[in-house]
């Protein structure tokens, strides 16, 4: 039982350990996560700042080299000779070789530069170490077209032909492009291409770690990777929207916590580089960073579960000695509540088995059961006798009520010398008296009750003649149905009386029929009716009234109250009464009685 002392004691231990350990583990986890987050943010951003300075240094060397070549007289002389259509091939070749030597000397001064080459639109390129190559394949390469058509100055990591010929290396390079002799790529005849090995960018970047699996990426202003990091596409696709928001935002650096398409918690660390719109991006699963912390939390949960099991065992052991006798005592109380005193006594522990406060309560309750059983027996017998007396009094109250009215009618008929009508009234009255004087019958056959109503109706027809229109209908009644005695006659009498009190002609309809498991008795008249407030007051007074109040009432109009009191006394909550009326529109009273069968020689009281 959930509300038992044992259950509450066990629940208390469970809540104590669960709540305390849950709060402790949650506090430790949140505080540790906050510390780790702060450390990761500061550490990652600090390393990214260092790497950003390194990138700025490399870019500065690239721009210095490009500026030196762009502003050199040697470059202008070479460009003029190469563009002069009147110069001989020997003169041009000499200019190319001199320009190659200049590129070699200049590049050796910058340690981060891998190679430099000048590309001419007619299909020739000049590079370091006397490399003068006449071929136009570079004109179809994507980096050349993008620079010429879209002014894309930085080329992500790729394999360069110059590197293949000079250094015999297929390692990817990152390149910067610049037009020579003009500022617009479309107008320039010559293109400068400065190559830096991708490893020069990638090696220091690989030393920046985020957790165990987090990686840093260098991306351009379009969100594309600049270095050869094969796993970028997978990681970037999971954080594409967050990277785009970071690039579009005003913040130079920051940390973003989000969930990817699979619902996994991710952390994005970014820093924007000032010179070219590049951005450093680090993406790492939150679970990777908090793996040790999650392991600690799981250990705490396992420990909490073990302590919880121990606490449950202790709680069960402690509570068993207390709650077991109490449970039996509560079980005995439930049987007493249902009136089963024998079963209650069998549930109680034996005397002397529990030597504490619970044992004293058990002995006291056992004595209380014995006294209660005797008291209930005495009270039940007294109430039964009192109920029988009240019901008989109500029943006797009906007979004189209609008898006096009938005797007045006989007197009037005798004075008028209406012999036939007098005989009919006497016969009907005799049948009614024979039925009514059987006061030992509280529950009668429904057909006998209806015969009584028909006899009474014949008296009313003689009394009022053509001024009374009265009908009594029966529909689908069970053969063995029974009802409380004297139910319809008082209602019929009141209906006729109040109809004549306000009209010269009375129209009364009585209908008795079956509805599901009930017998419905309906009486309708054309009297003055009642307001809704009056109907509510009548029903409330009838529901609150007791038989002794009706017996003590000095009012002469006792018909409806008498009927309702007897029906409620016998049927209880199974009885229903409905009053339907409008002022000036007549009255309709409907009684719903549960169907009962006739039992020969068995009275209401004997039936309990």
UniProtKB/TrEMBL annotation:
Identify the CDD domains for this entry.
HAMP, PDC2_HK_sensor
| InterPro entries in the cross-refs | Bact_2-comp_sensor_kinase, HAMP_dom, HATPase_C_sf, HATPase_dom, His_kinase_dom, Sig_transdc_His_kin_internal
EC number(s) from the headed UniProt entry? 2.7.13.3
The question of whether Lyase is a record keyword is answered with no
Which residue ranges does the record assign to the HAMP domain?
320-377
Compartments annotated for it: namely: Cell membrane
Per the UniProt record, the source organism is Paenibacillus cineris
Reaction(s) the record says it catalyses = ATP + protein L-histidine = ADP + protein N-phospho-L-histidine
Which keywords describe this protein according to UniProt?
ATP-binding, Cell membrane, Kinase, Membrane, Nucleotide-binding, Phosphoprotein, Transferase, Transmembrane, Transmembrane helix, Two-component regulatory system
Q: What protein does this entry describe?
A: histidine kinase
